[in-house]
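As the next step, I selected for study a record pairing a protein sequence with its backbone structure tokens, which the following lines show:
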Amino acid sequence: MEGLAAKMVICLVGYGRIGRITARILAEKGFPPIVYDSSRYRVELARRDGFESHLADSTNPHVASHIASSCEAILTALPGRIAERVITLLVEYKAPLIVDVSFVRDPLAFHSRALENRIKLFVDAGFAPGLSNMLVAHGARGLDSAVEAIVYVGGISAEAEREPLGLVASWSTMDLLEEYSRPARAKLRGRLVELDPIDDAVEVELPGLGRFDAMPTDGLRTLLTSYPSIETLVEYTLRYPGHVNVLKTLKRLGLLDNKPHVIAGCSVAPRELLARLLEEILPKQDDRIVLHVTVKGIANNKRVERVYTIDVKQRDLDIDYPVLAYATSIVHAWTAMQALRGWGHPGVNTPEELAPALRDLARELSSRGIQLRRRECIES
């Protein structure tokens, strides 16, 4: 791989919270990326970190065309709405390999064009969606039938009493608010449904992890297509108790709305204003990630339940950035490494397709202090 690293041109579009850590991990592995970002501050930061970097708006077709033709592998780490435009351009200009960690609305929408252009496009290459998809796929392997898969995942503050909202700004606050506002696609008892993240929230007690507000969110994505036979398939985002009540108040006040209002001659959308306020108010450090995935099914005429769990705080690790951003970047960089080793096929590559390599990813996470625990219960 060392010889390959010296020859290949690896590029990273976006040097925000996730992109910066992804770049560090790639550099550790001998693949220092060339960085492109539209922020002068982040470009200078990348240069201070030792990376070749360029001030460039990748939503500009000329810029996207240059990146597509200059780079042999492109990793994208952008807010969802921007990523959608950038990936569309990179696919159109036939970038050979793209590994995206952003939350685009419909990753499978890129498949036909990527397939036509012989592009390997890895989507949802993050913690959740991403690792969570792999765990569902791994849990379903070897079962005669998988009947239920539930994903509980949360990036929260290390302590429940921390205000405001029990959150740390570990990813895009606009993407956070859009997650609260977007209907969650799920499957209940064989029927595809859309759930409201706030109105359909529930309270859960997860053994060894604690009590949480659990909000149905739209993170299943490609799993709904990959596993049509699973009768119940839901993702819940975890928050500390009381969080949903705060969101209900914000919703009633209209602060989650995206319709602009004219104030002092300026057009302002309440959601954009709230996102900016959260960006300024929320702490940037000391978070906790919780991932609890259960898969239930039948094997050899016996009921089987497989459970996968991660629970770690930033303060438990020797890192100076949120553990959610760290875990997301680990999966992002690891997925890129799998692609560089030849994994994948033309068109969209879903994270669940990487489940056969889960043991390797678990070792990578463990080497960085993040332990994936697994247990299996079989009906006696």
Q: What stands out?
A: The chain has a mean pLDDT of 94. The two ends are 47 Å apart (CA to CA).
